[in-house]
Design brief:
Elements lengths: L2 H23 L2 H9 L2 H28 L6 H17 L5 H14 L2 H29 L8 H21 L7 H17 L5 H26 L5 H15 L10 H12 L4 H18 L2 H14 L1 H10 L1
Length: 315
């Protein structure tokens, strides 16, 4: 299957999830999600997003510097805001990351290495998020807790198998496969697991995940949930894991589907799960709006050479 068809299928899956929820629950939970958002929740989301974005930009800078394509922290923060805005407005949820990778690559004259830096940065963040989710879901009582030991065992087995396979892959020679394996190994050693890199990745990713969880809990409160944070925490983590699945429409689809399922099974109601997910989506979109400002500045610089020259002078 071609890359284009894969993209179309992923988008269709996201559309199908939303259509199914509308058919089963009606439009009420979606409308309520938009209606219930207030200034307080939006202000909280923006403040949390500022901290999370700073941490993610720092993580990206650590990985990029390890790969030899470093960038200033201020540039990284602006680019990360821009990518978040694009991710929340364009299909797929990853085009913003592709954009910042390509833009960074053009700035440093090495698009390939810049692309790899973003891939490794996002992958490292996802791994930390998955580990944190496993730990919390193992420890905090919920309807998924009984299944978590088996899930953890399967994932651990898969991780060990991946390491073993990586060790036996051919590294010698000039074939494309061998060059890819060598490049991946070098990237990991210098950009991810290096002693001066991995602690920062773990710290930044942990703070970012905590920020996403806090935003989700605020969204649940805004949506009308009276459940305790401990009861909501596993549901929030399941929602975050669902958001990492690239079968969404600007972030919509799997998030609402998993929230409806999780809230329903937990006895809080599928409709409340959808409303919470919608509130979360609106909060995240508003919190990403500084990225629209970055896009506007970029557009003005391209149109006005004088503005571009001034920006270069200040940079």
């Amino acid at each position: 299957m071609s890359r284009t068809w894969c993209t179309v299928v992923r988008l269709l899956v996201g559309c199908a999830i939303v259509a199914f929820l509308v058919r089963r629950l009606g439009t009420g939970p979606f409308v309520d999600g938009v209606r219930l958002v207030d200034r307080g929740s939006l202000a909280a989301a923006a403040a949390i997003a500022a901290v999370s974005t700073l941490c993610c930009a720092w993580r990206w800078r650590l990985v990029a510097r390890g790969l030899g394509v470093g960038l200033p922290l201020g540039v990284a923060v602006a680019s990360y805001y821009r990518s978040q805005f694009l991710n929340t407005t364009l299909p797929g949820g990853v085009l913003g990351d592709v954009h910042r990778a390509v833009q960074h690559g053009r700035d440093v004259g090495d698009v390939g290495r810049a692309l790899r830096a973003v891939v490794w940065e996002r992958s490292a963040g996802q791994v930390v998020q998955l580990v944190l989710a496993l730990v919390v879901l193992l420890l905090v009582p919920s309807f998924v807790q009984p299944a978590m030991p088996m899930v953890a065992a399967v994932l651990a087995t898969a991780a060990v198998a991946a390491v073993l396979v990586a060790r036996v892959l051919p590294r010698a020679g000039q074939s494309r496969w061998a060059r890819t394996v060598r490049a991946a190994g070098t990237d990991l050693r210098h950009g991810v697991v290096a002693q001066q890199v991995w602690p920062g990745i773990v710290l930044a990713s942990t703070i970012a995940v905590a920020g996403h969880l806090a935003t989700f809990l605020i969204a649940a409160r805004t949506a009308g949930s009276g459940a305790s944070p401990i009861r909501l925490l596993p549901l929030a983590l399941l929602g975050l894991v669902a958001m990492s699945v690239p079968t969404n429409i600007a972030g919509w689809g799997p998030r609402e589907g998993v929230a409806a399922w999780a809230f329903g099974v937990a006895g809080l109601g599928a409709a409340l799960g959808v409303t919470t997910a919608v509130v979360y989506g609106v909060m995240v979109f508003v919190a990403s709006l500084p990225g629209a400002g970055v896009l506007l500045v970029d557009w003005l610089r391209r149109r006005d050479p004088a503005v571009a020259a001034q920006g270069a002078a200040h940079g």
